[in-house]
């Protein structure tokens, strides 16, 4: 019995020492990691959220950067015969150029000042071989700011309607003569400016929203190209 009591008393101080040591270790870990009972403390951001520039919150994704529309991308953004209205879908021309030769740019009806700063430009033209003609011209710049410095749309509601497409927009009249009439729209979306012209023989029945429908389709195709997507927007009714 004596031996048992002595052994018990010898083990007790050691157990207390181990318990005290564990308490100190846990306290040090709490201080070093910042984990405690303070519910107002922010969790540390992950390295991935720091790289992407987000706050680390769920759903907070960085805004994707827009592409620059070089000549191949610009050409793909141009409308094709499957995206324009069916009654004016006979193709006449669809082509894009680099801006190395400003004389070509100016021959496509762009201002000399624009041609001097352009990256690429192109045209898609269509007809029904009878009484309607449509052309869509695009010109691309390296930044939206450069495009915005060259074109400021001042379209009024009676010209372009409520909530018109694009960042800047302006409408204008066309007087081709010889029994033809028409209307046009200039519109900027990001770093790209489009000039859309629709002409028809006098007396031809044209839907009242035809020009704006083509304009919205053109802007959507530019937006898709700037995001790196396939340009598939169409002005035809979707089934």
Description:
The protein has 239 residues and is of the alpha+beta class. It is built from 8 helices and 6 strands. It has helices at 2-33, 47-52, 71-77, 102-107, 112-117, 144-150, 157-160, 210-226, and strands at 90-98, 120-127, 132-140, 168-177, 180-189, 192-201. Strand 4 and strand 5 (180-189) form a beta hairpin. The protein starts with a helix and ends in a 13-residue tail after the last helix.
Care to give the gist of this entry?
The chain has 239 residues and is an alpha+beta fold. The chain is 36% helix and 23% strand.
The SSE string, one letter per element, is HHHEHHEEHHEEEH
What is the number of strand segments? 6
Supply the number of helical segments.
Answer: 8
Helix percent band: 25-40%
Mean pLDDT: 80
Going by helix content, strand content and strand pairing, the class is alpha+beta
Largest sheet at a glance?
6 strands, antiparallel
Question: What's the structural blueprint in terms of helices and strands?
Answer:
Blueprint: H1 2-33, H2 47-52, H3 71-77, E1 90-98, H4 102-107, H5 112-117, E2 120-127, E3 132-140, H6 144-150, H7 157-160, E4 168-177, E5 180-189, E6 192-201, H8 210-226
Antiparallel strand pairs: 1-2, 2-3, 3-6, 4-5, 5-6
Helix pairs in contact: 3-8
Main attributes of the structure:
239 residues, six-stranded antiparallel sheet, 6 strands
């Amino acid at each position: 019995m004596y031996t048992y009591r002595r052994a018990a008393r010898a083990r007790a101080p050691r157990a207390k020492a181990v318990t005290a040591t564990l308490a100190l270790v846990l306290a040090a870990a709490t201080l070093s990691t910042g984990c405690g009972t303070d519910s107002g403390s922010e969790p540390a951001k992950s390295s991935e959220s720091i790289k992407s520039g987000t706050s680390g919150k769920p759903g907070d994704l960085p805004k994707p950067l827009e592409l620059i529309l070089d000549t191949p991308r610009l050409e793909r953004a141009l409308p094709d015969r499957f995206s324009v209205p069916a009654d004016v879908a006979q193709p006449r021309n669809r082509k894009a150029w680099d801006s190395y030769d400003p004389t070509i740019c100016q021959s496509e009806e762009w201002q000399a000042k624009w041609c001097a700063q352009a990256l690429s430009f192109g045209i898609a033209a269509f007809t029904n071989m009878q009484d309607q003609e449509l052309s869509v011209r695009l010109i691309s710049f390296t930044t939206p700011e450069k495009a915005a410095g060259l074109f400021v749309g001042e379209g009024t509601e009676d010209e372009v309607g409520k909530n018109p497409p694009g960042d800047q927009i302006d409408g204008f009249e066309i007087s081709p003569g010889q029994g033809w009439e028409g209307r046009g729209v200039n519109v900027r979306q990001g770093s790209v400016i489009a000039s859309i012209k629709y002409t028809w023989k006098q007396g031809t029945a044209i839907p009242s929203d035809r020009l704006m429908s083509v304009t919205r389709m053109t802007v959507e195709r530019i937006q898709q190209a700037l995001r790196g997507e396939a340009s598939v927007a169409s002005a035809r009714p979707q089934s």
